[in-house]
TrEMBL record, chain A:
Parts of the chain that traverse the membrane: none
Its biological purpose: The electron transfer flavoprotein serves as a specific electron acceptor for other dehydrogenases. It transfers the electrons to the main respiratory chain via ETF-ubiquinone oxidoreductase (ETF dehydrogenase).
Alphabetic keyword roster: Electron transport, FAD, Flavoprotein, Transport
Keyword Transport applies: yes
Organism annotation: Actinomadura luzonensis
SMART domains: ETF
Name assigned to this protein: Electron transfer flavoprotein subunit alpha/FixB family protein
Ranges of residues in domain Electron transfer flavoprotein alpha/beta-subunit N-terminal: 4-185
Family (UniProt): Belongs to the ETF alpha-subunit/FixB family.
Subunit structure comment from the entry: Heterodimer of an alpha and a beta subunit.
Keyword Signal: no
TrEMBL record, chain B:
One Pfam family it belongs to: ETF
Keywords: Electron transport, Transport
InterPro entries reported for this sequence: ETF_a/b_N (IPR014730), ETF_b (IPR012255), ETF_beta_N (IPR033948), Rossmann-like_a/b/a_fold (IPR014729)
Stated name of the protein: Electron transfer flavoprotein subunit beta
Start and end residues of each Electron transfer flavoprotein alpha/beta-subunit N-terminal domain: 23-212
Co-factor requirement: FAD
Cross-referenced Gene3D superfamilies: HUPs
Complex formation: Heterodimer of an alpha and a beta subunit.
Source species of the chain: Actinomadura luzonensis
Organism lineage string: Bacteria, Bacillati, Actinomycetota, Actinomycetes, Streptosporangiales
Length: 317, 259
């Protein structure tokens, strides 16, 4: 079967869950080959990629690949596409993943599909557009299909692959070195999973009332091993950092479980979370539109309901 | 500094958004057209940079005739002039076709800085800025929540999942902005009146050396095979909190094996 390139996402050498999802998806359509770009590759990473089906692991360990914004990774992938003629290239539909896909599409004169929530025979992608209102099948008809797949849309399943390592060297053009990263600033977010990757997301909105009160949301998230999200009302008010905003001008999440506390569910918010598998809403207002989406809704004050829920979860663990 | 800010007319999220049954492209008649929200932040940032460093702000849009409403709004906010790329041949262009056509216009009109919103609220592909940078061979400074220009160099804060990256480059460059960056101004009455007198140049594809074989639905690199309205979610259970709302929710979570 033909090779499918999967761009590895990793944090300090640890392979992210979305990459395991992509390898699982690639296995159903061809022979997965993982592509590791940048430093940090280890035996642990190799073992993980092989465990989830990577037959080949292409490794380019140069520091240069991460010293500039996006362009070097797209260039490295374009060189691999030219050398290996893969059946498709899969990347995670993260902000950076989509940008890499976009540049790769231009470089290889190939079509690109962003934010796929599924991928079938002939690389026909499922997409959920207009805030989850319309389901679309789409496909690439020119070049190598490049598909950015939304995290959490495939359940990762191990199935051993050979994991044969192959070092590749990448010659970067001067153009790829245009935007230099001079400093990386990490903001404390504790041990919580990343928002777009998390299986469970607990979000707070206007009803939370203050930055201090977000502790209530965080405690529930921590009891569930969840990520914390926020509505635009909450981030605009400065109660929670902007990068945790879920919705049209923030992140799109597609977790197994989404708990919306004190969020009315404006269409702009729904656009970012509507494809969650299970939705729980807690809101004082019985007319809040979020209840139209909820699999389970509690009409009540989140300041009473959420702490009780947190205690119950701790008790039952 | 010669700043070009790209704006897109999109269907209002608050109205029903549809695809056309005939050619599976966006149904522009079904919903009200508004300026893509993130592009308003791009316009604001362009105006701020002009106020600090001088120069000129040009609005660039690609879209059918009624996209002029979008141009007017940006001009009313304070942009100096506009270029409207409008040609029936562009209908149905995907991101690759759009980025190609816009890059051709940008090469023609020239720029020190191109600014656009990080994504559109309709297609939400989030690829256009990266594609433009690729096509123009200029640095990509995307997902910015802060932009600073000093002489011929530019620094941004690029939003990441762990915080942000400080990124620097030499002009010319392509920048995309996130909503956190600023608070877009409202057009004043004076601004609205002044906008009516500002020059708007309309270009057809031939005016910008755009190859008709690279744009439009027929040449698109990807296609919509079919589509359908998402089935409505089944009505859930709604309970009123009588002092046991949290416990009830925990029961539900247990029944779904989340705990």
């Amino acid at each position: 079967m033909s090779e499918i390139l999967v761009l590895v996402e990793q944090v300090e050498g640890e392979v992210k869950k979305v990459t395991l999802e992509l390898l699982t998806l690639a296995r159903s359509l061809g022979t997965p080959a993982a592509v590791w770009l940048g430093p940090g590759y280890t035996a642990d990473a190799k073992a993980k990629l092989a465990e989830y089906g990577a037959e080949t692991i292409y490794v380019a360990g140069s520091e240069e690949l991460v010293q500039y914004v996006v362009a070097p990774k797209a260039e490295a992938l374009a060189q691999l596409v030219a050398d290996k003629s893969p059946a498709a290239v899969l990347v995670a539909a993260t902000a950076e993943g989509k940008e890499i896909a976009g540049r790769l599409a231009v470089k290889t004169d190939s079509g690109v599909i962003t934010d796929a929530v599924g991928l079938g025979d002939g690389f026909v992608a499922d997409q959920s557009i207009f805030g989850g209102g319309v389901n679309v099948h789409s496909k690439v008809r020119r070049g190598t299909p490049i598909v950015a797949v939304r995290p959490n849309s495939t359940a990762p399943a191990p199935s051993a692959g050979a994991g044969a390592e192959q070092e590749i060297s990448v010659a970067l053009s001067e153009a790829a070195k245009g935007a230099r990263v001079v400093e990386r600033v990490k903001q404390e977010k504790g041990a919580r999973p990343e928002l777009t990757e998390a299986a469970i997301v607990v979000s707070g909105g206007r009803g939370v009332g203050s930055a201090e009160n977000f502790a209530v949301i965080e405690q529930l998230a921590d009891a569930l091993g969840a990520a914390v999200g926020a509505s635009r009302a909450a981030t605009d008010a400065g109660w929670y950092p902007h990068q945790f905003q879920v919705g049209q001008t923030g992140k799109t999440v597609s977790p197994q479980l989404y708990i919306a506390a004190g969020i009315s569910g404006a269409i702009q918010h729904r656009a970012g979370m509507q494809t969650a598998k299970t939705i729980i809403a807690i809101n004082k207002d019985p007319e809040a539109p979020i209840f139209e989406l909820a699999d389970y809704g509690v009409v009540g004050d989140l300041h009473q309901v959420v702490p009780q829920l947190t205690e119950e979860i701790k008790k039952r663990k | 500094m010669n700043i070009v800010v790209c704006v897109k007319q999109v269907p209002d999220t608050a109205t029903e958004r549809k695809l056309r049954s005939d050619d599976k492209t966006l149904d522009r008649d079904a919903a009200d057209g508004v300026v893509n929200e993130l592009d308003e932040y791009a316009v604001e940032e362009a105006l701020k940079l002009k106020e600090a460093h001088g120069g000129e702000v040009t609005v660039l849009t690609m879209g059918p005739g009624k996209a002029t409403d979008t141009i007017r709004k940006a001009l009313a906010m304070g942009a100096d002039k506009a270029v409207h790329l409008s040609d029936e041949a562009l209908h149905g262009s995907d991101a690759l076709g759009t980025s190609y056509a816009m890059a051709q216009v940008l090469k023609k009109i020239g720029f020190d800085l191109v600014i656009l919103g990080a994504e559109s609220t309709d297609a939400r592909t989030g690829v256009l800025a990266a594609m433009l940078a690729e096509r123009l061979g200029t640095p990509q400074l995307t997902l910015a929540n802060k932009v600073e220009v000093e002489g011929s160099s530019i620094r941004i804060q690029r939003l990441t999942d762990y915080g942000f990256d400080k990124v620097e480059a030499a002009l010319p460059a392509v920048v995309s902005v996130v909503e956190k960056i600023n608070e877009p101004r409202y057009p004043s009455f004076k601004g609205i009146m002044a906008a009516k007198k500002k020059p708007v140049e309309t270009l057809a594809i031939g005016d910008a050396s755009i190859d008709a074989g690279q744009v439009g639905l027929g040449a698109a690199w990807s296609e919509v095979v079919d589509f359908a309205a998402a089935p409505p979610r089944a009505a859930g259970t709604i309970v009123k909190d009588e002092g046991d709302g949290g416990a009830n929710a925990a029961d539900f979570l247990a029944s779904k094996k989340f705990i």
